[in-house]
Amino acid sequence: MTTQYFEQLSPAYLAHYCRRLSSLIIDQGTQILSDMGLVTPAASISAIVYIEANSPVSAATLAEALGVSHQMATQRVNELEKLKLIRRVHSKQDKRVKQIVLTPLANKEIKQLKPFTEKVEQAFRQLESDLECELMSIIRKAELALLAKPLCLRISESVND
Prior knowledge:
The chain is mostly helical. The chain contains 7 helices and 2 strands; from the N terminus they run H-H-H-H-E-E-H-H-H.
């Protein structure tokens, strides 16, 4: 068996591996959701669950809650709106502000999404056991470390050593 090029890549290509893993998880989750007859995208379950618990919400509030940019949250909201899972309504406090609420379809799907996410959690806990590490914790620590000391600073320090 020949070694794939990407398997020879150094840690300099960590983003490539992270993107591959993220895509794999999303693709597998999307297939399961499709098999269940659901239209909620795998990458949007956290948004749907948050909106259900905190409705109505603004895109800015959703972005902050999910730890993503406003642009990313808006893209997710636009996708969910096209799928008829959410709708935008005027805020009761400020008619200029649009807020996001779930549709009856999303409320129906969330009844299946909650047990699904419990099964996904069990599957990932098993994966962490198989890998003998707390994968989510390590990923979050890496994210926080790069926020505290960005890659550009790490590179400049290594060049000066």
